[in-house]
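Hi F.,

I've been meaning to write this up properly since the lab meeting, where we talked about keeping a consistent format for the predictions we share between groups. The idea is simple: the sequence comes first, exactly as it goes in, then the structure tokens exactly as they come out, then a line or two of notes. No screenshots and no reformatting. I'm using this chain as the first example so we have something concrete to point to.
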Amino acid sequence: MGQTSTAAQQCTQQIQAILKTCSNNNGINEANFLWFTTNGTSKNGQAPADETAFRDQICQVEINIGQCVLTQAGPLFNTTCQSSPQIAQSVDSLFFTYDAKCAHPCRGTLINEMTACYTQAGLSTDLFLSNRTRGHVIGDNEADVTKFCDAKDSLLTCLKPKVEACPESLAILSSQEFHMPSYEQVINILCKHPLVYITGLNCFEEPTPAVEACVQKHTQEYIQTAINAQQQEWTPDRYIAETCLINIDQIKCDLEAWADKKHDACKPAVIGLRREMECKLLPPNCTATQGAKFRQECNDGKYMMNDRNTFNQGGSGGSGGGDGAASQTLPFSVFALVMMVALVFFL
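Output, unedited:
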């Protein structure tokens, strides 16, 4: 009992020292910090002379203080503070309050504003943040795909300013597995090949055991890489290089598995379009850190451009035209969603 009490006291003292250092290093008085993050309930807190000015000041350094505390206090929760989980909970509570009080108003409105863009463009709001794992991003039949691609430019014109105007859009949308630059790039690719897209929906509707094995392998490798990075204290550059290698290998595994599926819809043009989509969703850093590997898996030859052009000329009712033309798109995969999230961290 005595040892537990001593450990808790030692943990508390170390955490207090970390909070003091991190706040002071960012120009924030420790007593003012505690007043703000406990809503004035801390006995060690003290209200600043100008509360409005202080809020602006402390909110500007929220990320810096948070990263400082996380870096220094994180290891303690696996050692000195391991037997005192309530202390970790107290720190979490401080930063939950901190974040809530510094939140931009758009945190509560951005998703609704973006949803309204679909209505304004004459599109179903069901296409926003839904069905992405099954791939029905721009519709699930030829009429809906044509309608979406005709309205695509109008939709983007509405969405992009709202995202750009919200300082917290990156964090808000990443929690929804949505990244605006990736979304724009993907729908532009998909809206150039409507016939291929519609056919692809049938191909990718049901994954094969080989496809599922690729996803499982990819997930396990991602988890192990994150563990290795933490335990071995990798540099950010090494972590990016390793995850890029995993992602490129997954493209190879995923597309070869789909190509082997015994289904009339899994044509070379369909597989090639999906490959281009997944390659475009790779973090930009991957072209630098894994250049040779990237070029091996992501090139016009493997995108099956000639097959796509022939496919579109086959006259199945869709146009293979430009930006405003109805386009067929390959469905999103679980991998594509992972890539979209990864872009948030690497751009």
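Notes:
The first helix runs from residue 2 to 24.
The radius of gyration is 25 Å.

If this format works for you, I'll send the rest the same way.

G.
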